[in-house]
Protein: LIM zinc-binding domain-containing protein
Organism: Mesorhabditis belari
Amino acid sequence: MPMEGPKCTVCSKTVYRAESTLCFGLSFHTKCFRCSVCQQHIRIEKVQRNKENELFCNVHFKRLQEIAHQKSITVLVSLNPIPSNMETLRNQA
Ligand SMILES: [Zn+2]
Ligand SMILES: [Zn+2]
């Protein structure tokens, strides 16, 4: 059985050394080493990743963080019990 190389983090296919990019201790095809939003090739010193090991350029990683931040605010607001309590208090008064 032939030795299998590491698998590409993006496409899950075997990465051969000649076409490999190593980053975060993970293997990538050089052609797969790109922003998952804009598909632009990313320089290894500029690359960002999320928890799922998806790669992003600086621009789209920032945008992702902004969206995540907005979502967490929305969740906090929708879980905030104060408005309904205020309503209850007013009804009791
Ligand atoms: Zn790949
Ligand atoms: Zn991008």
User: Anything to note?
Assistant: The chain has a mean pLDDT of 86. Residues 58-79 form the longest helix (22 residues). The two ends are 79 Å apart (CA to CA).
